[in-house]
Amino acid sequence: QVQLAESGGGLVQAGDSLRLSCTTDGGIFRMAAWFRQAPGKDRQFVAVINWGGETTIYADSVKGRFTISRDNAKNTVYLQMNSLKPEDTAVYYCAMPMLTGWKYRTTPEEFRYWGQGTQVTVST
User: Fold this and answer.
1) Residues with Cβ < 8 Å from 61, sequence gap 6 or more?
2) In this structure, are residues 44 and 101 in contact, taking their beta carbons and an 8 Å threshold?
3) Which pLDDT value is given to residue 28?
4) pLDDT grade for 15, boundaries at 50, 70 and 90
5) What is the share, in percent, of the chain residues with pLDDT greater than 90?
6) Which contacts qualify for 101-104: CB closer than 8 Å, 24 or more apart?
7) Which residues does residue 30 pair with via DSSP β-bridges, in sequence order?
8) Which residues, 6 or more positions from 60, have their beta carbon under 8 angstroms from its beta carbon?
9) What are phi and psi of 63, to 5 degrees?
10) Average pLDDT over residues 18-39
11) DSSP state, 100?
């Protein structure tokens, strides 16, 4: 069992920045991803990173504004969000798959472990 816990969400204005953190107790050798879910919408892929941090993939909607990274010594995955827009408003979730190693995964069904989520609200 892998435990994940997100933090860092909040209420900001458009154009501001936030950094989300996801701490884990069992993420060794596992890729990690961020998803988000707005009210009434499906959970949406945001970004994914491999264990070593060399490989990252982003959704087109956040490319160039968001950066995913990780510090394995601290068992933490980050999502730096810059130039935030009202349409970025959502609950943001950290996720890890059941299996270790790298595989191209961007759908929620491919991830087994989830945090409780952290709310990000961007006002105009």
Assistant:
1) 87
2) no
3) 86
4) very high
5) 92
6) 101/29, 101/31, 101/51, 102/31, 102/50, 102/51, 102/55, 103/31, 104/57
7) 101
8) none
9) -60, 130
10) 94
11) -
- In the predicted model, is pLDDT for residue 26 greater than 90? no
**HSE, side-chain direction, 13 A CA sphere, residue 17:** 8
In terms of DSSP bridges, do strands 18-24 and 4-7 run parallel, antiparallel, or are they unpaired? antiparallel
35 and 91 Cβ atoms separated by less than 8 Å: no
Quote the CA–CA distance of 26 and 4 in Å, as a whole number.
8
Runs of H (alpha helix) within the chain: none
- Model pLDDT for residues 48-107, shown as the tens digit of each residue: 999 999 999 999 999 999 999 999 999 999 999 999 999 999 999 999 999 988 889 999
What Å distances lie between residue 104 and 5, 6, 42, 55, 65, CA to CA?
23, 23, 20, 10, 21
Neighbour-count burial of 98, counting CB atoms closer than 10 A to its CB (0-12 exposed, 13-18 middle, 19+ buried): exposed
Q: What per-residue confidence (pLDDT) applies to 3? A: 96
How far is CA 54 from each of CA 14, 35, 49, 60, 61, rounded to the nearest angstrom?
30, 19, 8, 19, 21
